[in-house]
C-alpha cells in the first residue's frame, strides 16, 4: 500500500459523517391477574407508575384480569406507550377460587391459587400467551402467571420478575400452616416464586430489605437483582402553603385550629392492625389530636366513644388529595408486611411530616434528609413524637419541605418509570448475548469537553468486553449521546443533581459482572480494564482499588488527586471497581454523603473490605489531571466545606476514620478543615472524641505565638 492510499483513507475517515445511534422500539409485555385502572391500592399504583412513561422507544402491553366476577373484556390506552388489556376470568374459575377461600377460613386466595386454577380461564390464557410471543421483554408482576406461560418463553427473551413483595415470606405471615389447604397454597406460592426467580434475567425488588431477603430465602444471585422502589405521581400536585392547609380544613368543615393526623390504607391485614392501634391506643393517649383514617381499612373498624377519630371509608383520588392537604402530620404505625408502603410517599409528596415505625418506613432512604421520624412500636413513643410536632410548627414545615424534596429526587413515578424504561431497553439490546464483563459508570456535571476526552480513552481500551453508562446531570445534554462509540452505551440525562445518586443510578442500569467507576475528568490508560480482568479471575477478590496518578503537586494553584500513599484506606471513585453482586448486597453508595458528595467512596470501600478482599493494583491506572483552584467548585473554600462529611464517616467507622485522619493529616495543611469538621459533628449531633480534641489543642498551641 502506498503513502497516497494511506493518506486518502485518513482523509476519508476524517470527513465521513458521524454514525448516529438510533435505539429501536422495544416491545414489553407485563403480565398479572388484576386490572391497573382504576389505580386503587399499592399493587395497581405500582403498575401504573412503573410502566406509564418508560420512553417513546418502548411499547408496553399490560395483560390483566379482574379478581371479581361480572366484568367485561377491556382494551384501552393508559398513556402514549402503555396499553391495558383485561380479560375476565371464567365463572368456573371464580367458583373454584371461592371454594378455596372457604377452606382458607375466609382469606382471599384467588391470586395465590392462580397458577393452578387459570386453566379454567382459557380466554385469559390465550391472551397472555399471545402477548408473550409478541414481546422482547416479558415482565411478570407477581409470580402467579409465570408457570402458565413458562413453556412459551424463548431463551432469547428477557424475563423480569417485578416483585411487589417477597411473596413466600409475606404469605407465610398471613397464612395458617396448621390448616392443610393454606399450607398447600403457601407451598405453591414458594414454588411459583422460586421458579420465576431462577428463570428471571432481572429481579426488581421494592426495597433493599426485600433484595436481601430474596437472596437469603431463595439464594437468588444478587448480581441480577435491582432495587426499583415504589413511588408516587409527585408532579401531579404540590404541597399547600400553611394558609392553604387551613382553607382545606374549612372546606372539609374541620375546625381551622384542629391538629389532624392522617392515616390511609386499604383493607389489607397489616393496615387493619395499624388502624386499630390508632383507634384503641393513640386516640386515647392524644385526645387533643384528631385522627383521620381513610380508605377501605375503615370498613372493619369498630369505634366507640372516640370523638377525635374520623373514619371516611373508601375515598377517590380527589378526596384523598383534599384530606392530605388538610392534615398537619401523617401517622404510619405498621407492624408487619413486606415491600414498601406506597402511602408514605403520598404523605411525603403532600408535604406532611410522618411519624412511622421502622416497618412502615422499610425500603425508604431519606438520603440524609429529615423527611420522617421513626419511633418504637409502642403508644408512648408515638405520642411523644406527635406532641413534639404539635408544639413546633417550624419543625413540621421544615420536615414537610424535606419530605417533598426526598420524594421528587428518589420516589417520583415520573422519574422511576423513565429509568425503568432505560433498564429494560438496555437489557433487550443485549438479549441472547453474553453480558459484558465490565460496566464503566461515569457521572458527569458541566464538563462535557472532559467527558468526550474520557470517552476517547475508553475507545482506546485494549479490553473490549465492556459497556459504558453515563449519568449526565448537566443543564444541557452531551452532544455525543447519540453517536456510535464502538461499545454498548447507555446515556441518561438526569434532572436530579448529586454524584452519589448518579453512581447508584448507573449501577442500577449496569449489566456487567464488574462495575468500574471513574470520573468525568479522568483518563484511564489503555490497559486499565485488561489489567483489572486478571485480578477478578480470583473469586476471592470482590473489588479492586486502582492506582490514581495526577500532576501539579506542590502547586497551591492546583488540586492534585491521587491515592498513592493511602492504599487500602482512602478509596476514590476515580478508579474503583466492585463485583455487581457485592454492590447490590451493600446497597450502593450511601446517599447521606451527597450534597456535597464526599467520602461516599471511602465509606463504600470500607464496607466492601468487611465482605472480602479488595487489593490495590498499581498496574490498573487512571490519570486524574489536577483541577485549577480558580474554578469555583475547586476553590479552597468550596472544597473545605466537604469535610463536614468526615463527621458522618467517623460516626459509621470511628476506628477506621481515626486511622485515615492521621494518615491524611488535613489538620496540618488544609485551611478550614477543623472549622467544617466541627460543623459536621454539630449537624450530626456527635461528640468530638478526646483524641481529636487533643489534636485541636496541640494545633492551637502551635499557632499561638510564644511570648
Structure in words:
41% of the residues lie in helices and 16% in strands. The protein has 707 residues and is of the alpha/beta class. The chain has 4 domains: 26-227, Glycogen Phosphorylase B (Rossmann fold), CATH 3.40.50; 234-413, Glycogen Phosphorylase B (Rossmann fold, 3-Layer(aba) Sandwich); 433-631, Alpha-Beta Complex (Spore Coat Polysaccharide Biosynthesis Protein SpsA, Chain A); 635-707. The strands form 4 sheets. Strands 3-4-2-1-5-6-7-8 form an 8-stranded mixed sheet. The longest helix has 20 residues, at 180-199. The N and C termini lie far apart (83 Å). The model is unreliable at 1-20 (pLDDT under 50).
CATH class of the largest domain: Alpha Beta
Round the Cα radius of gyration to an integer and report it. Answer: 28 Å
* Arithmetic mean of pLDDT: 92
Q: Find the CATH topology of the largest domain.
A: Rossmann fold
Strand order of the largest sheet: 3-4-2-1-5-6-7-8
Number of strands: 24
Q: CATH superfamily name of the largest domain? A: Glycogen Phosphorylase B
Largest sheet: 8 strands, mixed
Considering DSSP H and I runs of 4 or more, what fraction of the residues is helical? 40-55%
From the coordinates shown, what is the CATH architecture of the largest domain? 3-Layer(aba) Sandwich
Taken as a percent bin, the fraction of beta residues is: 15-25%
* End-to-end distance: 83 Å
